Amino acid sequence: MASSQTESNTISGINVTPLVDITLVLLIIFMVTAKLVVAPSAALKLDLPRSSTGEQVSPVFAVTMPRDGTLRVNGQPIAGDAELMQRATAERNAHPDLRAVIQADGEVTHVRVLHLMGLLSRAGVTQIAFAVSLQPAPSSPR
Question: Residue 26 belongs to what domain range?
Fold first, then answer.
């Protein structure tokens, strides 16, 4: 009788399902993080600025688009697309690392901003940024 009690308390097998689950999860985590560690620049394509000394200032081509439809380049009004292209090309030739900053009013349509980006791109200005004013977002009605 004593021998039958000892036999019923022994573990005859080990459930390996939780071990396999944890191993597979860890394997997936290591595979994903290893890809990011090996090639961090491939994760996000960013156009990072070059470092400059205090004496060198990166030129900025500021384009302002108020809601009335006029365009201003570096604070001066321009006549139209041809003059914008001419000035952007001249600035790009003078400064190869030229950056454009678009300051568009909130009421300006998306189409006009995309048209401006296309003009700047055709002029050779590929580094384009958008200026924003830091204000709390208006609360949306629920």
Answer: 14-46
Amino acid sitting at position 10 = T
Residue 118 corresponds to which tokens in the numbers above?
């296309």
Q: Which of 112, 93, 96 is nearest to 104 (CA)?
A: 112
d(CA 101, CA 139): 28
Q: Strands 60-65, 71-73: parallel, antiparallel or unpaired by DSSP?
A: antiparallel
Each residue's pLDDT tens digit, 5-34: 455 677 777 888 999 999 999 999 988 887
Question: pLDDT tens, 53-68?
Answer: 555 667 888 888 888 8
- Amino acid in position 116: L
Residue 62 phi, psi (nearest 5)? -90, 125
CA 72 to chain centre: 26
C-beta separation of 62 from 75 below 8 A: yes
Residue 38's φ and ψ, nearest 5 degrees, are -70, -45
CA distance 57 to 44: 26
Residues 89, 27 share a domain: no
**Domain containing residue 75: CATH number:** 3.30.420.270
